[in-house]
Amino acid sequence: MRCPKCNSEILRENINIHTDIAECIKCDNIFKISETVGDIDDNFNINDTPTGTWMTKDLDSITVGATTRSPIAFFLVPFIIVWSGFSIGGIYGNQIINGEFDLTSSLFGIPFLIGSLIFWSAALMAIWGKVELVLDKSGGSIFTGLGKIGLTKKFVWSDITTIKEVQSNYNYPGSTGGKINLEGKRRISFGLGVKESRRYYLIKVLQKIHSNVKTNRRF
Asked: In Å, how far are 4, 71, 113, 172 from 125, measured between CA atoms?
C-alpha cells in the first residue's frame, strides 16, 4: 500500500485493518484504507467492456466512455410532453394566440419553464447522452453531454488522491443515484445517470491507470 498524498510505501505496522486507518511516516498523513485500497493494481481487464461502454487506445492516450441511455426515457418523454403542453402552453400559448402580454402570468410561468428545461435535459440524456473520458499520462478530460454539446472537466493525476463511488445528494429524474468522485486538491464529480455496471467499469479504469501512473508502470 502507498500513501495517497506522497506515494511513499506504507509500513505494515502502520496499517490497521480493524480501524480502517493507515499512517504514512514520511508525510504524517493519516487516511482511511477503504478509500485508497481501490487504487491498488488488480487483475481488472480494461479491454473487457460491459454493454453500453467503449474503449479505444491511441499512441499516448486511452478513451473510455459510457452511454447514459435508460428505459426511464419511455416515461419521461410522454410526461414532459403533457407537462409542457399544459403548463407552458397554457401560460404562454394563450398570450401568443391572443397577441397580448401578461406580466403576472409570464412571471408565474418561469418556474414551469425552468422545470420543463430540466426535464427535457434529463430526457435527452436518457436517450442520447454519454460520459466520455480521454486519459493520458498527465491527466485527462471528462465530457458529459449529447454528441459534442456538453460540459468538459479537466484534471491532472498529481492532484488526485482518491477515486471512489458515492451516493449523490442530488438526483434528477432518470438518474441512478450514484456518481464518481475524483478527490484531492479539488473534487470532481461526474457519472450521474450512468448505469451501475457502466459506472463501475469507468471507476476501475480510472483506478487502474491512476495506480500505473503513480508507480511509473506502463500506461
From this structure: 34, 11, 18, 11
H helices within the chain, ranges in order? Answer: 73-83, 94-98, 103-128, 196-214
Q: Which of 124-138, 161-175, 196-210 has the lowest mean pLDDT?
A: 161-175
Query: CA–CA separation, 161 vs 204, rounded Å?
Result: 15
Q: What is the pTM of this model?
A: 0.70
CATH classification for the domain delimited by 43-69+127-214, as one of 3.40.50, 2.30.29, 2.30.30, 2.60.40: 2.30.29
Q: Taking a C-beta distance cutoff of 8 angstroms, is the pair 54, 68 a contact? A: no
The set of residues, in sequence order, having a beta carbon less than 8 Å from that of 147 and lying 6+ positions away, is: 128
With a CB cutoff of 8 Å and minimum separation 6, the contacts of 159 are 139, 184, 185, 186
pLDDT grade, residue 42 (50/70/90)?
A: low
How far apart CA 87 and CA 81 sit, in angstroms, is 10
Distance set, CA 155 to CA 95, 124, 171 (Å): 48, 27, 24
pLDDT tens readout for residues 54-85: 999 988 899 999 999 888 778 878 887 887 77
Give the model's confidence band at 171: pLDDT under 50 very low, under 70 low, under 90 confident, else very high.
low
Domain ranges of the chain: 1-35, 43-69+127-214, 73-126
- State the Cα–Cα distance between residues 31 and 190, nearest whole angstrom: 23
| SS3 of residue 155 by DSSP | strand
Q: What is the average pLDDT across 30-44?
A: 64
